[in-house]
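=== Per-residue structure ===
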Amino acid sequence: MIIPKYTPLGDLYKSNAVLSVPKYQRTFDWGKSEVFEMITDLKTAMSAEKQMFLGTFVFDISNKSDYKIVDGQQRITSFTLLLIACRQLAKKLKFHALAQEIQKKISFTDETTGEMVSERILVSSSISDVFKHIADESWDGEFPTKIGNKQVKRQSTKLKALYGFMYEEISHFGKSDLTSFLKTVYSTYV
């Protein structure tokens, strides 16, 4: 049974459940044109101080700790990548408290060590190794070609292009603009 629920993205990122892309889903394939449209819409909503509707997401919530993304993985993956870019910008601006708050949306953290336990979204296997790497708060901004013994150049190439584009789109933000932008992101509803 489908139960529709109006949900701001900020609430979705506060959930105790992992959001995971099932293996049967297609790979992550959004490119710059889709991301450009997403960021343009966000900036328009930010300047108009209005909520943006992102469309319908469908989750299989039969497992209360692991919501399977049936529809919406391209959008939620892209928004999470955008949050990583916002986190990195907050660090650059020496807005460390904000960077830590953004990190809470990106990953689950061990409250005793402060270290990442898991990403909040387990993305398509086509980008999962590099996505996990950059989701970590300690990420240095470099995209690896190898993680352990695994070659990840293709994953890095895909994510680096999108991340670089996203970061460039927000790089001119100061602290107040970044805060306003994040309010728009978190209030965007599905």
Remarks:
- Strands lie at 18-20, 58-60, 66-71, 107-109, 116-119, 121-122, 146-147, 150-151.
- The longest strand covers residues 66-71.
- The chain has a mean pLDDT of 94.
